[in-house]
Amino acid sequence: MKFIDVISPFLAWSRAARKADTIPYPLKRNPGSARYRGFHLNDPDKCIGCGRCEEICQNLAIGMVMTENSDTSRGDSGLRPLVDYGRCCWCALCVDVCSTGSLSLSNSYSWATFNADTCAYIPGEDAKAWDNSTGGYRQDNSVLQWAGSPRVDMPEIEPEERVRSFEEVIRGYSPEQAVAEASRCIQCGLCVSACPAHMHIPDYLKAIADGNFARAVNLFYDNNPLPEMCGKVCTRECESVCAMGYQGEAIAIRWLKRFACEQFESLSDVLAVDEKPLEPSGRTVAVIGAGPAGLSAAYYLSRMGFVTHVYDRNGEGGGVARYAIPEYRLPAAGDEKQMDVFRAVGVNFHFNVEVTGDDILKMSDDYDAVFFAVGLQKSSDFKIQGFDLPGVKHAFYFLTSHPEDGKMEVGSRVIVIGGGNVAMDTARTCRRLGAEVIVSYRRRIEDMPADVEEINDAVAERIDIRSKTIPERIEESDSGLRYIYVEAKMVDDPDGGRPKPVRKDDIEHDIEADTIFLAIGQSSETGILPDEISEKLKIKWGRIEVDEHQFTGVRNLYAGGDITPGAGDIITAIADGMRAAEAIAESLRRT
Amino acid sequence: MSVTDPLKTTHLFFGPQHPGVTGNMSVEMWFDGDEITKAVTHVGYLHRGFEKLMERRLWIQNFPLVCRICVPEPDINEECYAMAVETLAGIEVPRRARWIRTLVLELARFGFNVMAYGGQAGTLGLGTGSMWGITFRDFVLDLFEELTGGRVYHMYIQPGGVRRDLPEGFKGRVLSVLDKICERLPEMDRLILNNSVFRDRTVGVGIVEPAWVNEMGLVGPVARGSGFRRDVRKDAPYEVYGELNFEVVSEKGCDIYSRTLVRRRDIDLSVDLIRQILDSMPGGPVASRLPNLTEWRVPPGEIYSRIESSRGEYGYYVVSDGSLKPRRVHVRGPSYIHAVPLLERMLVGANIADVSNIMVSLTTCPPEIER
């Protein structure tokens, strides 16, 4: 034993004279660090109630509940997370996966209460001392990308290549790409309520992710008898509310629907046995118009055992979606495949039949119910000076006349007036016919009613979109036509509506063109209804008003699709048809 | 005479609630006078069924769970699990994430070792040493709080990388904490290593024969205190240990003093490694992209991943059947060998006053034994 070893431990006493390292809690409190994982915070306005936090929580500490201020508006389930601190382990997985980034953890870590029940509370709803805390663990999606990721790129033809033909622009996913894209779905189901037809979106995405494409097709047909059409040109309300779209890109729900349908040569063979129609009930229903609404009503009525007869003036089913949407967006090749399904469930088609007012009265007597879904077949007039010059044409009639066969001459320079999908389709069709195209629209580009995708594609195809241009008149010129416009500025609407374009100055600009297309909108042909019926109907802005069951209130007449007020897209028409079918079935079962 | 003869021996249960026991375990002992004739280790007080729980959780949900297997050094579990899953799923970990992980592992080892070093003195009644050890560890926990958001359970190393990048100015704060502790460590050495009582109670006590090391599969400071240079960091380098410059610490005394000395020199080694890591930390992303976490299926396969913990080789055996959850996870900590067969062997013939001294020198951790 060394003497120094006896002495040296006592040197520790020197620490008694030095400052202590301990914190004299509670006189002095150490705040949690900037990244501290303390009690939850939630921004109730940002939260959409997708339930991702509940799903990822490994302790079952989070439950989604309705709150007093629940607002179940579009894209919000109204549910908010309730956190049970008897179970929470502060791992912050919920924060890292939160789709909107509304959930975070404060740096507050001490809380004493006499009431243990309050230890389970709804952050953001139940006031707590740390609600205004700025420190704590916040989501950083740029590091982990757990809250949102980019979608699998859809292969498409390059813009320079695609304007040379009417070939479909979108090439479609490969099975591997589709499975990868469908696997991104977090199964929150917010899309279901946003979809007008309430399709089983999370279920069919799961089926695709599992590689069970036939099951996906069966799920489509539960709420939508035109899945391939919707897989190509749907307005996709579902994707606009997708939880993955907040911090990444929405799931490509539309493209996946298209993918699943494309996997099968025949859709009617894929549909399971229980999808086949019931025994005929002996009751009959007439459907006027074989567009999406009419087809949808006919399909579900047939499946429920009713004999359905569909009348249409055209030679094939599909309505305006088939006749007006160009080949490069919706090739006609897929239509027969879908039509076969209708024939398989026993829908009787009567094509090339011009239904008159007398026919409608007779149908109303002969059939147990009539579903009126003729859509909007008339292009709206736009009576600016010179609208009746030769060379000024209606875009809608142009689109429905099979322009891709190239029989119609549009010349080398085309002007399209309007900003909707018809305007974009016309512009892009003319581009494919070899013309230089200018689109003139009164408001800003962001105000255009056309799909953003169509606008972007049009720009990529070198279509010159001149926004904020007010048409003045059209004149004849040496080379053809001269379009004269003035520039507009946007003025806020005092009533709170969208900003209105007004003349910025009186300077007139002009463009020479060979053809000018008017794409101002379509209107209805309610005139074919007999007076006996039409005078009893409520018709506003050319649209027939119906109740929530698509019933017009007159005789046994139901209506749906574009002829009734609504969003005016395919999926809404399909939903109308399905709703009408259910209402008709219900009323016929009772009588 | 039988070693458990009730007429000749005293029968005593030591633990599980006893400050001298390392965690929730107990030793049943028979002793004649104050010499132990037989010892049996009992575990089962802490069984939480981690391995089974993991089979019921998604792949990602397990990383906040595994850290709970070891309180003083949780990061080894996160690292083992992450390495196993990454290998099975074929995930590439960004370079910077590998360096940050190594930093975290060394900081955790450092925090554990300063506490265990003081704790060794605490078992002999020298409370000052253990208090200082816990204080030093608390300084390290402050760093962890800043880096990961949690003091004890960091939940920071996740499959694919780490959860956040280093905060601004973190390097400077790590270095200042290291400087502060290194400045005070000589004080602790004077209190513990240069203490005649400590020397008397530890030199030649708790002998681990070198022959037992390979026979029983001893690892970590226990093997290194008996003259072996056994360290996974050197033998099978993981993360960036292969790029760091260091020598494995070893002592030849085979007793408690040697093991304490190994721990003390491991502290210096960790400080050196942390400085090396901070100097060569590369830039870049810290996590690679994972698939949808609730739909994440890891390809079928099995893997054993191992790293060096402060107690020795630590491994995870993970089996995937290609589903959303692991088919089997087995945690292989060194504590089972050290606390059950080795301790039972060492205690025979030992003095009853040295029991907790010997146990702490093996730094056993019961949650590793009963996962």
Report on the structure:
The complex is a heterodimer of chains A (591) and B (371). Chain A is α/β, with parallel strands linked by helices and 591 residues long. Chain A contains 22 helices and 22 strands. In chain A, helix 8 (201-209) runs antiparallel to helix 9 and helix 10 crosses helix 12 (253-262). With 371 residues, chain B is an alpha+beta fold. Chain B has 14 helices and eight strands. In chain B, a hairpin with a 2-residue loop joins strand 2 and strand 3. In chain B, helix 4 (95-122) packs antiparallel against helix 5, helix 4 runs antiparallel to helix 11 (256-280) and helix 5 runs antiparallel to helix 6. Chain A binds chain B through residues 1-2, 4-6, 8-9, 11-12, 15, 21-22, 32-37, 55-56, 58, 89-93, 96-97, 105, 136-137, 140, 143-146, 149, 183-187, 209, and chain B through 57-58, 60-62, 64-65, 126, 128, 135, 138, 142, 145-150, 153, 155, 160, 163-165, 167, 187, 190-191, 194-197, 199-200, 285-287, 289-295.
User: What is the distance, rounded to the nearest whole angstrom, between the alpha carbons of the first and last residues of chain B?
Assistant: 38 Å
Distance between the termini of chain A: 110 Å
Helical coverage of chain B, percent range: 40-55%
Taken in chain order, the helices and strands of chain B follow as EEEHHHHHEEHHHHHHEEEHHH
E-strand count of chain A:
22
Strand order of the largest sheet of chain B: 1-2-3
The mean pLDDT of chain A is 88
* Oligomeric status: heterodimer
Number of DSSP strands of chain B? 8
Largest sheet of chain B: 3 strands, antiparallel
Note the topology.
The complex is a heterodimer of chains A (591) and B (371).
Chain A: H1 3-7, E1 40-42, H2 52-56, E2 62-66, E3 79-84, H3 93-97, E4 103-105, E5 120-121, H4 141-144, H5 159-162, H6 175-182, H7 190-194, H8 201-209, H9 213-223, H10 227-233, H11 237-241, H12 253-262, H13 267-270, E6 284-288, H14 292-303, E7 307-311, H15 319-324, H16 335-344, E8 348-350, H17 357-366, E9 369-372, E10 378-379, E11 392-394, H18 395-399, E12 413-417, H19 421-432, E13 436-440, H20 452-460, E14 464-466, E15 469-476, E16 481-491, E17 500-513, E18 515-518, E19 522-523, H21 531-534, E20 539-540, E21 543-544, E22 557-559, H22 570-590
Parallel strand pairs in A: 6-7, 6-9, 7-8, 9-22, 11-18, 12-13, 12-18, 13-14
Antiparallel strand pairs in A: 1-4, 2-3, 3-5, 10-19, 15-16, 16-17, 20-21
Helix pairs in contact in A: 6-8, 8-9, 8-12, 10-12, 14-22
Chain B: E1 10-14, E2 26-32, E3 35-42, H1 50-55, H2 63-66, H3 75-89, H4 95-122, H5 127-148, E4 157-158, E5 161-162, H6 170-191, H7 196-202, H8 210-216, H9 220-224, H10 232-235, H11 256-280, E6 301-309, E7 312-320, E8 328-332, H12 335-347, H13 355-361, H14 366-369
Antiparallel strand pairs in B: 1-2, 2-3, 4-5, 6-7, 7-8
